[in-house]
Amino acid sequence: MSADLDLSPPEVPEPTFFESLLRYGLFLGAIFQLVCILAVIIPTSKSHEQDEASEQAETREPSKKVKGAMPQVRQKPKKESKKKR
Protein backbone atom coordinates (compact mmCIF):
# COMPACT_ATOMS: atom_id res chain seq x y z
CA MET A 1 0.00 0.00 0.00
CA SER A 2 2.74 2.47 0.81
CA ALA A 3 4.21 1.87 -2.63
CA ASP A 4 1.03 3.14 -4.29
CA LEU A 5 1.14 6.59 -2.62
CA ASP A 6 3.28 9.23 -4.33
CA LEU A 7 4.32 11.80 -1.71
CA SER A 8 6.61 13.80 -3.97
CA PRO A 9 5.67 17.48 -4.44
CA PRO A 10 3.68 18.30 -7.57
CA GLU A 11 5.54 19.71 -10.51
CA VAL A 12 5.14 23.48 -10.61
CA PRO A 13 6.34 25.17 -13.78
CA GLU A 14 8.77 28.04 -13.36
CA PRO A 15 7.11 31.43 -13.79
CA THR A 16 7.49 32.98 -17.19
CA PHE A 17 8.93 36.44 -17.78
CA PHE A 18 5.43 37.90 -18.15
CA GLU A 19 4.25 36.36 -14.88
CA SER A 20 7.28 37.73 -13.04
CA LEU A 21 6.78 41.14 -14.60
CA LEU A 22 3.12 41.09 -13.61
CA ARG A 23 3.93 40.09 -10.02
CA TYR A 24 6.51 42.87 -9.55
CA GLY A 25 4.22 45.38 -11.27
CA LEU A 26 1.47 44.56 -8.80
CA PHE A 27 3.86 45.03 -5.89
CA LEU A 28 5.00 48.39 -7.26
CA GLY A 29 1.39 49.46 -7.82
CA ALA A 30 0.48 48.58 -4.24
CA ILE A 31 3.45 50.54 -2.89
CA PHE A 32 2.51 53.52 -5.08
CA GLN A 33 -1.06 53.46 -3.78
CA LEU A 34 0.15 53.39 -0.17
CA VAL A 35 2.44 56.36 -0.84
CA CYS A 36 -0.44 58.30 -2.41
CA ILE A 37 -2.75 57.55 0.51
CA LEU A 38 -0.09 58.64 2.99
CA ALA A 39 0.53 61.82 0.98
CA VAL A 40 -3.14 62.72 1.33
CA ILE A 41 -3.35 61.91 5.03
CA ILE A 42 -0.10 63.38 6.39
CA PRO A 43 -0.19 66.96 4.96
CA THR A 44 -3.80 67.51 6.01
CA SER A 45 -2.86 67.26 9.67
CA LYS A 46 0.06 69.65 9.16
CA SER A 47 -1.99 72.16 7.17
CA HIS A 48 -4.23 72.81 10.18
CA GLU A 49 -1.18 73.74 12.22
CA GLN A 50 0.05 76.02 9.43
CA ASP A 51 -3.36 77.68 9.17
CA GLU A 52 -3.38 78.36 12.90
CA ALA A 53 0.15 79.76 12.71
CA SER A 54 -0.76 82.04 9.80
CA GLU A 55 -3.89 83.26 11.62
CA GLN A 56 -1.79 84.10 14.68
CA ALA A 57 0.69 85.97 12.47
CA GLU A 58 -2.15 87.97 10.91
CA THR A 59 -3.55 88.96 14.29
CA ARG A 60 -0.12 90.13 15.44
CA GLU A 61 0.38 92.34 12.38
CA PRO A 62 -2.95 93.97 11.56
CA SER A 63 -1.35 96.82 9.56
CA LYS A 64 -0.51 94.55 6.62
CA LYS A 65 -3.28 94.18 4.09
CA VAL A 66 -3.54 91.33 1.70
CA LYS A 67 -4.09 92.63 -1.80
CA GLY A 68 -5.60 90.15 -4.18
CA ALA A 69 -7.89 90.12 -7.11
CA MET A 70 -11.48 89.74 -6.08
CA PRO A 71 -13.13 86.85 -7.87
CA GLN A 72 -15.66 88.03 -10.38
CA VAL A 73 -19.08 86.55 -10.01
CA ARG A 74 -20.58 85.82 -13.36
CA GLN A 75 -24.22 85.00 -13.70
CA LYS A 76 -25.40 82.93 -16.59
CA PRO A 77 -28.09 84.62 -18.66
CA LYS A 78 -31.44 83.03 -18.11
CA LYS A 79 -32.65 80.92 -20.96
CA GLU A 80 -35.91 82.02 -22.47
CA SER A 81 -38.52 79.36 -22.06
CA LYS A 82 -40.44 78.32 -25.12
CA LYS A 83 -44.11 79.10 -25.12
CA LYS A 84 -46.34 76.09 -25.01
CA ARG A 85 -48.52 75.75 -28.07
Give the oligomeric state.
single chain
User: Unreliable stretches, pLDDT < 50, 5 or more residues?
Assistant: none
The counted number of beta strands is 0
Largest sheet: none
Order of helices and strands: H
Q: How many separate helices?
A: 1
Instruction: Output mean pLDDT.
Output: 76
The N- to C-terminal Cα distance equals 94 Å
What is the approximate shape?
elongated
Q: SS-based structural class?
A: mainly alpha
The fraction of residues assigned to DSSP E strands is under 5%
Radius of gyration: 32 Å
What helical percentage do the residues reach? Answer: 40-55%
Describe this protein's structure.
This protein is mainly alpha-helical and 85 residues long. It has a domain at 34-58. It is built from 1 helix and no strands. The longest helix has 44 residues, at 17-60. The chain is elongated and about 90 Å long. The N and C termini lie far apart (94 Å). The model has no long low-confidence stretch (mean pLDDT 76). One of its GO terms (cellular component) is membrane. The chain crosses the membrane at residues 20-42. InterPro entries: UPF0239 (IPR009621). It is a single-pass membrane protein. This is Protein MANBAL.
